Every structure is written in structure tokens, then in C-alpha cells.
Amino acid sequence: MTSMTEPVPEPARPRRARGASAADLAHLLGAPVPDVAGGAAERMLLGVTLDSRSVEPGDLWCALPGAHAHGAQFAAQAAGLGASMALTDPAGRERCEAAGLPVLVVEDPRTATATAAAVVQGRPADRLATIGVTGTNGKTSITTAITRTLLELAVPAGAIGTSGTSYRDARGADHAIGTVRTTPEAPELHGLLARMVEDDVEVVSMEVSSHALVLHRADEVVYDVACFTNLTQDHLDFHGTMENYFQAKRLLFTPAHARRGIVCVDDEWGRRLAREAQIPVTTFTTRADVEADHRAGPHRPQGYGSTFEVEGPEGARTLQAALPGRHYVANTLAAELLLAAIGHTGEEVAEALGRAGTVPGRMEPVALDPIRGIVDYSHTPDALEQTLSTLRGVPGTRRVLVVMGAGGDRDRGKRPRMGEVAARLADVVIVTDDNPRTEDPAAIRREVLDGIPDRTNAQVHEVGGRGEAIALAAYLADVSDTILVAGKGAETGQQIGGIVQPFDDRLRLRDALRDAHTARGDADDMDEGR
Questions:
Q1: Is 52 annotated as a binding residue?
Q2: 413 belongs to an annotated ligand binding site
Q3: Is the residue at 14 inside a domain?
Q4: What is the pLDDT of residues 454-463, one digit of tens each?
């Protein structure tokens, strides 16, 4: 059984601290040891944190400069909770000292924070088999497939990413640790890895975001193997240009971050990365017109997923993808190659990978008959295009209805492109709210609608409330139609005006389909996807 039980949430640090002396850490960072009463140099630092609210006695608290304020303003809180020492830049020194904290002063506190976290936790990444996956789309699917495959093979393994952190220890117990970012901040990351080492986990698969690479969150982890999936427009609110976005991803394929790479060369960004990577790389493709070390042939439907042949240096082999579509063929092949890179090969591995199952919120079937209801995380133009194209190609599909929108406080340039994709590939488009965050939801919807041509064959609706939009899709759908609810995947909340309200697309779609079709008498016949 690969499915995990319902584990109790746990802290992102080991139970027993390894620790490091302040003097040793100061020497490593090139920082002078504070000259204060009480022997600061002899102090043992037992943990590292950025959050003044999560400080525990004996911690090194790291006060970093931010976009709007300096972390040092919270020095009194950190000191009050028992921080042993602070690490900051010259701008934060005075506030930390005023709070009574000995201070390690460095010019680049972000980089130093990662080093400190790794050292204090005993460099846990060196004691695990580590896989890092980057790219715009596919990261969660690949890391989840790897972890579930290893669990099928009775290998203690874990994953860190968009869905949080989870792992199964060597005794078979499941653990869940809530994390906010795709790639956690360095102190949290090394704490998580140390906890896995403590529980005799053997392999960890991580999503490595472009933000993490630029902001040094993933520093001091040299992955045994790194993977690149693809690059399409996203996060340009942070990176500014696609070139900057690419350069951020490229950092993972340097000796400071990985020993070897697996690169999908389906797009030009992947082909460029394969040429420019500073580590040895193996390439793969799903395209017949692209040269690569491993090539996936045409996929054939099998159940909800598909099977396909792979041509590689050692001949042909057959793999099975648990989900439909060419992008899941690519994800499955990536997972197989990554597993092989850390020593897991053979028919037993391939069979376990084929059984790895669906990923929550990724092409997840809520209902399959008489109306197919699918929830997917596709929140970029390319991901939405791939998902809609895949669903349109499923045998027996009559119409495709899509409920979609765009997130607030994120890359605005992709909004009209998503509207254009939806109208081109769906028969019915219902533009609604995603996570508006601090933006005006109606303004976001207008930007999405601006991308839909005046002359479109799609039936277009604008519905502000996401629940009402899903209900409308269920009302409009008929036998053999497919409803796609796109954008939020497995998220269980909706961020509106700084408040997270409970909202799960999967539950709403399941309930809406039942409510809309009870009167027609087909609700009892609905085959729910689980």
C-alpha cells in the first residue's frame, strides 16, 4: 500500500539537535565572534530559524532584510523566546544588540543562513539520496510519483513541495509537516532533512522553485540528481523576463547544486539547458523530431492512463502512465530516469511506477460517468492548454467545459493568454475567481476575458463566486461531457482579501454534479473517481 494514513502534523526540526558551536560557525562564515560577557564563542547553537515567533531556546535567529522591512525589528521577540544568538547584516546589527543578542554580522545573510542551517543540523542532505525537480509544470507530479513508487518498494522515502512535506520512516510510520512555500526557507529545509535522517529515511524528492534558487533557500544541498521539466510563462512578476526565469532554473544544473541532471528537451529551453549545463546530463523527449538519449513513443489509452514505449541506449522498454496525456508521459519517463539515477531499476520498479496512482489535484477525477469531472492545478497558459487538449482527446468525449480564472498578486501577463487558450480549446468557458488575494476579483476576471476573441465558438460566462461557477458548469453539462475545474488543484482554501476561506474544488464539483443531475435520475449511476 502506498497511500498514507492520516499523520499528525509535526514540527520542521529534528527531535534531538546536533548543534554547532558559535565559534566554529563564525569561523566558517568569516564573521567575528561577538565579544560579550558569558562566553558567546562557547555557546552551542541548537537550531536555526528565520521566524522570531518560532524561536526555541538555544536557536540562532537569522534577521534578514526584506522588501518592506528588516527582520531585525523583531529582535526583542526572538530574544524573549530564548534565542542564543542572531545572524544579520550590518543594517540589522544595532537592533539585535539592543535586544541583548550576541550578533554574527555578515554581508550576505541569506547565503550565510543556509550555511548555518546545514552546519547546525549536521549537513543532513549528505546522508540522504536527494532528487531535485525544477520547471514550470510537472514538479509535484514527478516527486509524488517517485515517492509513491519507492513506498511500493518498501523504501523509506519522502517528498517536499507544493503539497507540503510528507514521508514514511523506516518503521512504516507516516509523517506530515506543513510547509508554506514550494521550497521551504533554508532553516526549515535543513530541519526537515535532519528529521528525515533521524527517522532513517533513505530518499527525498524535492520541488526546487526558481525563487528558492535565487533566494538561496536550497543552498547547501547538492542533489544526487536534478531534473528539468519545461519552462513556460509564470512568475514574471518576480523574474521580470523569461531569460531571467531560465537563468534561475539553470542554477540547479551547476556543481554547487547537483551532481548530474535529467533534462526534458521537448522545448527549446530544455535543449538550451542541456547544452549549457555545467554537470553531466541525460536527455529525454516525447517528440519524434527531437534528438535525445531516451524517446517516448506514441501513448495508447489504458484505463484512465496510458502505456507507451521508450527507446533508449539499452533498447526498448514499456512504461505505464497513471494519468492521460503527453505531459504525463513525460512526467512518468522523468520519474523512471530519476529513480534509475539513484539505483532503482528493473521491471519491479516500472510496475510500481505504473501503480503509483494519481496525484491529488493533478488531473484528479472526481466523477467519470455519465459526466467526467476533473480537477487540475493548471494555472499557466501552457499547462491549461495541455490539460484541455488531453481531455478533448479522451475517447467518447462530447464537449469540454472549463471553470477557470487567474491568481491575484501574480504574473498579470499570463491572464489574457489563459483566456485565449480556454476559449480556443473548450466548448464552454466559465471565467471565475481563483485566489484573488489582495486584488479586485472583477478586475482579474476582466483581464482574463480580454484574451478571449470577440468571435469565438465557445460559450463564455463570467461568474464571480467560484462555487457558483462550478455549479453552473454542472448544470450546463450533459452525458459524455467533461468538466475541468482548473487553477487550484488540491488546495483546500481560497485567498480573498488576505483571508483564507475553506474551499476545495474537488468537494464542490462532486456536490455540484450530484445536485445538478439528481432530478434527471442519473446521480446514483455516477462513477466517482477516487
A1: yes
A2: no
A3: no
A4: 999 999 999 9
